[in-house]
Amino acid sequence: MRLLAEIREVDRRVPKRLAAEVAPGLHRALSAVEETAERSKLWIGAAAVMACAGGWRGRRCAVAGLAALTVAQLVSNGVCKQLADRPRPPKEWFPHDEAEDRPDSSSFPSGHTAAAVAFTAAITPTWPLAGVLCAVPAALVAVERVQSGAHYPSDVAAGAAVGLASAWLVRRAPRLILRHGL
């Protein structure tokens, strides 16, 4: 019970603070990164660059990243949001107009974060430098989702967990299938 109370307190305090204290330049940069990540454009673009310029390693990363992203989107948006039905943070917590332009779907979990983390985590073991480069916008997307009023911090954390689990599953599925003869 105490842990849940602490999570609720963080979910209340952090979005208000981020919305009030983020400098206008950083706010614009976060919004630009989120816009490129919308509908997975950023990750599809990264996969295309890796596949075209990265040889066998780039193609392997592109396939793994897009597969993990797809699993994460299905789990977060297709299953979890349907079950959770959590309202978005109150609009009055946010002094900017981005809180007006947010989805009507459940807040829990963050599908943007799930996709970003899934893609990044799936490519990192094969191409660590590409993973590091993708981790920067992935982290910015996660921060932006809270700062903009679209999600609570716990939504973003849950999205990250879905993303990590999706990447793990995609990277392990071929071995599991071969081992168990499925």
TrEMBL record:
<dbReference type="InterPro" id="IPR036938">
    <property type="entry name" value="PAP2/HPO_sf"/>
</dbReference>
<feature type="compositionally biased region" description="Basic and acidic residues">
    <location>
        <begin position="86"/>
        <end position="104"/>
    </location>
</feature>
<keyword id="KW-1133">Transmembrane helix</keyword>
<dbReference type="InterPro" id="IPR000326">
    <property type="entry name" value="PAP2/HPO"/>
</dbReference>
<dbReference type="Pfam" id="PF01569">
    <property type="entry name" value="PAP2"/>
</dbReference>
<keyword id="KW-0378">Hydrolase</keyword>
<keyword id="KW-1003">Cell membrane</keyword>
<keyword id="KW-0812">Transmembrane</keyword>
<feature type="region of interest" description="Disordered">
    <location>
        <begin position="86"/>
        <end position="109"/>
    </location>
</feature>
<protein>
    <submittedName>
        <fullName>Undecaprenyl-diphosphatase</fullName>
        <ecNumber>3.6.1.27</ecNumber>
    </submittedName>
</protein>
<dbReference type="GO" id="GO:0050380">
    <property type="term" value="F:undecaprenyl-diphosphatase activity"/>
</dbReference>
<feature type="domain" description="Phosphatidic acid phosphatase type 2/haloperoxidase">
    <location>
        <begin position="63"/>
        <end position="171"/>
    </location>
</feature>
<dbReference type="GO" id="GO:0005886">
    <property type="term" value="C:plasma membrane"/>
</dbReference>
<keyword id="KW-0472">Membrane</keyword>
